[in-house]
């Protein structure tokens, strides 16, 4: 059934424009800094997490259907209202992981989040009660939906609600909804995320190379197959309260990649890999909060996998 398109959605986008490099120099930034960056001119990670520039919230109300994705809405805005709005995407269907952002404060992928699931009608109830205490989500959960025209901030009739968007938490914003995920990619890279096999290929009874593959049976494959689905989107890292940039904790994504190869029967470096994550900022950094599990777009129970790899490292 084709949905009628007489409805709208309002996107509140937390925007960010880094301070231009020239202004940075005029303020005394070194022109000889190794890496030009909107985060302070150096490679120091603390500086990278203090992005300097203009931050503001911009609101867009556009025609939308409940089945539209948030990425569809952003593309509509970019094509018809504001070409300067910056966001990153590639595949458009949950396979590449490039469009992770915070939707209503929750890290997730823009291309798989629908208006139906994420638009929320603002409440008419005041944010504080008669005694001046802030009302909690529990108190407001059972309030009836209110007609849009009655809502204090004047959301028009036919509105599907409001969606708030910001760049992925835990990473410095680069521009608008684009976060700098290099810290995560570097942590993954440090843990050698590729197969290190023994180089011995399967041979026939006559000693000839049978196949140019390293063979394993279905049970061996099952031990890491789910982990190999990780697309390094950073959603788990954005949800992790310990990660926050990766200085104190390598983060769940890097540990998922380490675990993927530790559990691969063809890999010969399991002990080295476990040594590499048996550090204060490795498995010891995980506080078992399990927020990382909630929105993994590839269905990995990240918290459970963290638990398994911590146990494996300790038992070795
Ligand atoms: S484990 Fe899941 S949430 Fe974390 S980076 Fe991989 S795909 Fe994304
Ligand atoms: S655009 Fe590729 S995962 Fe969303």
Identify the notable features of this structure and list them briefly.
binds iron/sulfur cluster, Ubiquitin-like (UB roll), 316 residues, alpha+beta, 7 strands, Fumarate Reductase Iron-sulfur Protein, Chain B, domain 2, two-stranded antiparallel ribbon, 2 domains, binds FE2/S2 (inorganic) cluster, 11 helices
Plain-language structure description:
The chain has 316 residues and is of the alpha+beta class. It folds into two domains: 8-173, Ubiquitin-like (UB roll) (Roll), CATH 3.10.20; 181-315, Alpha-helical ferredoxin (Fumarate Reductase Iron-sulfur Protein, Chain B, domain 2, Orthogonal Bundle), CATH 1.10.1060.10. Helix content is 26%, strand content 14%. A five-stranded mixed β-sheet has the order 2-1-5-3-4. Strands 6-7 form a two-stranded antiparallel sheet. The N and C termini lie far apart (57 Å). Iron/sulfur cluster is lined by residues 97, 230-236, 252-253, 256, 296-298, 300, 302.
């Amino acid at each position: 059934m084709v949905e009628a398109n007489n409805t709208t959605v309002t996107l509140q986008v937390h925007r960010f424009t880094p301070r231009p490099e020239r202004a940075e120099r005029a303020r005394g930034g070194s022109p000889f800094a190794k890496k030009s960056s909107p985060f302070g001119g150096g490679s120091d990670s603390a500086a990278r997490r203090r992005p300097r520039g203009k931050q503001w919230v911009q609101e867009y109300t556009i025609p939308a259907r409940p089945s539209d994705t948030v990425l569809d809405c952003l593309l509509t805005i970019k094509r018809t209202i504001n070409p300067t709005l910056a966001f990153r995407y590639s595949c458009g269907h949950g396979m590449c992981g490039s469009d992770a952002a915070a939707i209503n404060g929750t890290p997730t992928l823009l291309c798989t989040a629908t208006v139906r699931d994420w638009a929320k009608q603002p409440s008419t109830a005041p944010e504080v009660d008669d005694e001046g205490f802030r009302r909690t989500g529990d108190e407001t959960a059972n309030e009836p939906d209110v007609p849009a025209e009655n809502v204090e901030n004047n959301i028009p009739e036919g509105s599907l609600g409001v969606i708030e968007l910001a760049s992925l938490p835990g990473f410095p914003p680069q521009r608008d909804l684009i976060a700098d995920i290099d810290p995560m990619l570097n942590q993954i890279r440090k843990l050698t995320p590729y197969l290190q096999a023994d180089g011995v290929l399967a041979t026939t009874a006559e000693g000839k190379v049978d196949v140019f593959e390293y063979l394993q049976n279905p049970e061996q494959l099952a031990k890491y197959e789910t982990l190999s689905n990780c697309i390094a989107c950073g959603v788990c890292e954005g949800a992790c309260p310990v990660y926050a940039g990766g200085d104190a904790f390598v983060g769940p994504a890097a540990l998922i990649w380490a675990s993927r190869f530790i559990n691969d029967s063809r890999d010969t470096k399991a002990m080295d890999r476990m040594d590499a994550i048996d550090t204060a900022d490795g498995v010891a950094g995980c506080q078992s909060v399990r927020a990382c599990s909630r929105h993994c777009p590839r269905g990995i129970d990240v918290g459970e996998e963290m638990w398994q790899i911590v146990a494996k490292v300790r038992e070795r």
